[in-house]
């Protein structure tokens, strides 16, 4: 299934995309695409519904972030060997973990705000993993049973805030609108191999990122198990698993996002996003 959320910001309703590309309202079945609605049993119940019996949502309705009530927005840095190489960094001996604040989350096609005083706002197409079953000290062999599905994430980043302003990366990663999620949460049964997905990003029609999740260093089962050693994972938590090469900071000379530019990005089987950059 392709689950989604639609409607005005802060008032989103749950929905799904039917086989004809129409959005159907799931409000009669679940309150939100969030929390316990992401369990295997809850998803199986939703899958039994006939989409044609559900109300059709008008075309042009805003898509919100595909997951609601996100508790943790966990990110993995330098997790693609070819991206690490372009930044001049070595592949880390353990996953680099940082956070985006949940206030960074926005819809897949909402405007992205360039922060005040920013000179180095950058892009990163990433494969998002959404937790469906919580746990601690999860076995790597059992890790995929804790995954509800996948989505596209743009890990928008301000490189000066991240790397030149002292402290952790978080201050350059969690600005408002720096976490577009969606368009859909695609349930894990629809993606045969999440470690073999083409992914790309363009700015004003120029393709900068053109990679594949196969070059991910620490793969999804390992990441789920690893993170669960340091925190409990809960339904609706989002893990952003790293980016392939082609970020602005990796260009020679470096290139950063400017107001009025448009980012388009997508991942095979997971849909596309489109954001216009504007000044905060």
Quick tags:
mainly beta; 9-stranded mixed sheet; 18 strands; metal-binding; hydrolase activity
How would you portray this structure in words?
- With 280 residues, this protein is mainly beta.
- The chain is built from four helices and 18 strands.
- It has helices at residues 40-48, 81-87, 159-163, 220-227, and strands at 2-6, 13-17, 23-25, 73-77, 96-99, 105-106, 112-114, 121-122, 125-131, 147-154, 157-158, 179-180, 185-187, 198-203, 206-212, 238-240, 262-267, 271-279.
- Strands 3-2-1-13-10-9-16-4-5 form a nine-stranded mixed sheet, covered by helices on one side. The chain has a five-stranded mixed sheet with strand order 7-18-17-14-15, with no helix packed on it. It has a two-stranded parallel ribbon with strand order 6-12.
- The longest helix is centred in the first third of the chain and has 9 residues, at 40-48.
Gist?
This protein has 280 residues and is mainly beta.
How are the secondary structure elements laid out?
Layout: E1 2-6, E2 13-17, E3 23-25, H1 40-48, E4 73-77, H2 81-87, E5 96-99, E6 105-106, E7 112-114, E8 121-122, E9 125-131, E10 147-154, E11 157-158, H3 159-163, E12 179-180, E13 185-187, E14 198-203, E15 206-212, H4 220-227, E16 238-240, E17 262-267, E18 271-279
Domain Fumarylacetoacetase-like C-terminal: 72-276
Protein name: Fumarylacetoacetate hydrolase family protein
Family: Belongs to the FAH family.
């Amino acid at each position: 299934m392709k689950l989604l959320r639609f409607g005005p910001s802060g008032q989103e309703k749950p929905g799904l995309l039917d086989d004809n590309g129409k959005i159907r309202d799931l409000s009669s079945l679940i309150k939100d695409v969030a929390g316990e609605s992401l369990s295997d049993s809850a998803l199986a119940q939703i899958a039994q519904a006939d989409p044609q019996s559900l109300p059709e949502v008008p075309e042009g309705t805003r898509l919100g972030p595909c997951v609601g009530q996100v508790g943790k927005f966990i990110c993995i840095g330098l997790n693609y060997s070819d991206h690490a190489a372009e930044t001049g960094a070595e592949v880390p001996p353990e996953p680099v973990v940082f956070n985006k604040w949940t206030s960074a989350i926005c819809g897949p096609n909402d405007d992205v705000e360039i922060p005040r005083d920013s000179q180095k706002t950058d892009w990163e197409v990433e494969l998002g993993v959404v937790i469906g079953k919580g746990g601690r000290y999860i076995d790597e062999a059992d890790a995929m049973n804790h995954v509800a599905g996948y989505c596209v994430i743009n890990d928008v980043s301000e490189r000066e805030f991240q790397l030149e302003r002292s402290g952790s990366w978080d201050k350059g990663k969690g600005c408002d609108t720096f976490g577009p999620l969606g368009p859909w949460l695609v349930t894990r049964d629809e993606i045969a191999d999440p470690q073999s997905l083409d992914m790309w990003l363009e700015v004003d029609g120029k393709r900068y990122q053109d990679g594949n999740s196969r070059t991910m260093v620490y793969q999804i089962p390992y990441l789920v198990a690893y993170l669960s050693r340091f925190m409990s994972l809960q339904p609706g938590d989002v893990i952003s698993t790293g980016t392939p090469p082609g970020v602005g900071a990796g260009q020679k000379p470096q290139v950063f996002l400017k107001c009025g530019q448009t980012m388009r990005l997508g991942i095979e089987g997971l849909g596309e996003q489109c954001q216009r950059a504007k000044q905060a």
